[in-house]
Amino acid sequence: MATNLELKIKINDFRKVLKTLSKINVEYKGELRQKDIYFTAESGLLKLRRQNGKHELIYYNRNEKGKKRWSNFEVISLEGKNIEKTFLNFLPKEAVVEKVRKLFIYKGTRIHLDSVKGLGKFLELETAVTKGKKDAESRFNEVIKLLEIDTEKQIKTSYRFLVKK
Fold first, then answer.
1. Strand, coil or helix: what is 17?
2. d(CA 129, CA 139)
3. May I ask the CATH architecture of the domain 2-163?
4. What is the four-CA torsion angle of 12, 13, 19, 24, rounded to 10 degrees?
5. How far apart are CA 66 and CA 15, in angstroms?
6. 20-45 residue pLDDT tens
7. Which terminus of the chain faces fewer neighbouring Cβ atoms within 10 Å, N or C?
8. Which of 60, 31, 50, 58 is CA-nearest to residue 98?
């Protein structure tokens, strides 16, 4: 399984973040239209994601109570017709989250500017573990510092739970 270090905060406006990103060597990967259907799972979270017309099944497990949000995950690309309908035939649906995501990459950290239907605007960071957790933490902390993120305001839960409230 792959591993990420993650952070999510609610923000009012993307302008300050976009201004900072324009000053550093960040790669803009584009706008992603995502629909996540969360299913009941014995452990962790399981979702079917439709993103710009393609589908993937994502399983992840994360300790939401820890100081740091390390996430272990697996992504499976899917092809075929009626993928959503097929999964809904045999897996119980818990929640649906729809969002528009602007995706940036900086030194292996995915920076998401999410506009989530019914919830508002969020900033998410996901730093991939490629050379060990210590390296990932260092790169993660660099982005936090660059974007002047108040980590005390982080939301330690999935959009799934926020939508269900």
1. helix
2. 10
3. Beta Barrel (2.40)
4. 60
5. 30
6. 999 998 999 999 999 999 999 989 99
7. C
8. 50
